[in-house]
Amino acid sequence: MNFTSFHFVFFFFTTLVLGHVLKGRPQRIFLLAASYYFYGVFEPYYLILILFSTAWDYLAGLAITARRDWEQNGGTAGLVARLPAKFYLVGSVLINLALLGYFKYTNFGITILNDVHPLGDTMFAFPAESILLPVGISFYTFQSMSYTIDVYRGVLEARKDPVDFALYVTFFPQLVAGPIVRATTFLKQLDEGINIQKNDIIVGVTRIIVGFFRKLVLSDNLAPVVNQVFSNPGAYGTLDIWVASFAFGWQIYLDFAGYTDIARGVARLFGYEFEINFLYPMAASSITDHWSRWHISLTTWIRDYVFIPLGGSRVGPVRIYVNIAIVWLATGIWHGAAYHFVAWGVWQFVMIAAHRVYGRSTVAEKLREVGGLAYNAASRIFLFFCLSFGFIWFRAPDMATANLMHGRKFGFENLNESLLFNSQLLSYSNLRDLNEFIVLLGLLWVYELFFNKYQLEYFWKPENRKKLILILIAMIYMIISMTPAETPNFLYFQF
Predict the structure, then answer these.
(1) Which residues of 425-440 are buried (b: 16+ CB within 10 A; e: fewer)?
(2) Which among 122, 250, 326, 423 is placed 20 to 30 Å from 349, CA to CA?
(3) Distance (Å, whole) CA 277 – CA 227
(4) Is the peptide bond before 488 cis (omega within 30 degrees of 0)?
């Protein structure tokens, strides 16, 4: 079910009212049933997969606890307690990764096999499988898996009530595209019960309006130009490719941040506070700063469950870069099963490694001292320049298209057109010319810098409520007047 559909509007208000009327365990059962309905609307068979994954990790958590209880208290070991806790942990991780691997990476594996064996481009090539990727599988798999890991580490007690655990995995606001919520956060709030105050309503409604504004007004109005260029990049010149790469960066950011704003706002109205997932990453001054602000729930998940177990920064200087490389290769593959996503992940590693070396140099120290405002502005512009290469790898349908676009950015292939800056975007009906679109991208940067300085917490203060009301009225007006006739699904549904 899409947040931008009328179906969701009816579902949300019905669920909100009944969710507050019911209390205790009946309330949890109702929210769980509503969440299964929300997910089943996409494709009913998806429910079988998420039910299996939920049941497996629920039982694994109980088994780990049973083993630990026997180790501490002794006595007669039951059948479950006879096996070590690590057995259940490994089983949980392997099953989750196997499910994710089959549905998301089978055809990518077949592609690699065809590329490496000598008859891969003939009639003897391995055929691709017809596999429908379940919506949100990357998100709920990581969320469910982190629960088992935390139980094994002793960070969390295994939840005995299956309804509680199932609701944690499937709670509908963040089910499809995050944020990835930790069990320690959700279950603690679940135990505290729903207690909605006036401030919760203000915060929740504000986030929902801001989310729809980011998605419908900002992101969706960038989509036609992005789609136009990326669908046929060979027809466009240097300036067009640069503009399209910048535009996609803004599009996917505003689309995904809009989704998580709505998710966090809806959850807040049900009494749950999820951690922030985007903290104005386009206002960052370096690649490490950028990734400390972008998709925070994923980056912290990978830090805690991949990077730190590998040794983190506690290892030698060479091993640190190996760990960082593994992390970003995994992050690229998590986003998509294709070579261009691998290239995107490798590019993030290159940027982070280069910044790590540069940041420890005397040159960086000196420039920071004498550069002042100019250095600060230049670092932001340079970061966006570097990010644009990753945006192309992320959005392009394949490596051939990405390579073509990267070449076009510097005038290779059809060089005369590139040098003349001939623009096919002049025909785009919603913009008079390309210069107007470039101005729009500049205004988005101003928007980002403004709200990075004056974040929503500033407007929630009682003395600033009038400013908040004016901003929300303006956003609602633009949502009504500027939403495109056709609004695409949230981009991260495909991950």
Answers:
(1) beebeebeebeebbeb
(2) 250
(3) 26
(4) no
Question: Widest CA span of the chain, in angstroms?
Answer: 83
CB proximity list for 363: less than 8 A, separation 6 or greater: none
Angle at 329 between CA 326 and CA 334, to 5 degrees: 120
Neighbours of 224 (CB within 10 A): 18
From 335, 340, 355, 406, active-site residue: 335
CA distance 257 to 264: 10
The DSSP-derived string for 377-435 is HHHHHHHHHHHHHHHHHHHSSSHHHHHHHHHHHTT-SSHHHHHHT--GGGG-TT-SSHH
Spatial distance between the Cα atoms of 183 and 301, rounded to a whole number of angstroms: 12
Let me know: does 56 contact 92? Beta carbons within 8 Å: yes
Long-range interactions of 324-331: CB distance < 8 A, separation 24+ = 324/349, 324/352, 324/353, 324/356, 325/349, 325/353, 327/302, 327/303, 328/352, 330/302, 330/306, 331/298, 331/299, 331/302
Alpha-carbon gap, residue 276 to 181, rounded angstroms: 10
Supply the pTM of this predicted model: 0.88
* Residue 157 CB neighbour total at 10 angstroms: 13
What average pLDDT does this structure show over 253-267?
Answer: 93
Q: Which amino acid is at 13?
A: F
Query: In 117-197, which residue ranges form alpha helices assigned H by DSSP?
Result: 137-153, 162-170, 172-175, 183-192
Can you tell me the mean pLDDT for 382-394? 93
pLDDT, tens digit (0-9, with 9 covering 90-100), for 52-88 = 999 999 999 999 988 888 877 776 667 777 788 899 9
Closest residue by Cα to residue 437 from 449, 427, 450, 451: 427
Decide if 335 is catalytic: yes
- Residue-wise pLDDT for 289-305, tens only, equals 999 999 999 999 999 99
Give the residue among 224, 227, 229 at the shortest CA–CA distance from 424: 229
Question: Distance (Å, rounded) from C-alpha 152 to C-alpha 61?
Answer: 8
Of the candidates 46, 145, 28, the one whose C-alpha atom is nearest the C-alpha of residue 89 is 145
Angle between helices 399-409 and 362-395 (to 10 degrees): 130
Is the distance from CB of 233 to CB of 241 less than 8 angstroms? yes
How far, in Å, CA of 281 to CA of 125, rounded?
43
8-state DSSP, 127: P
Per-residue tokens: 355: 């910044």
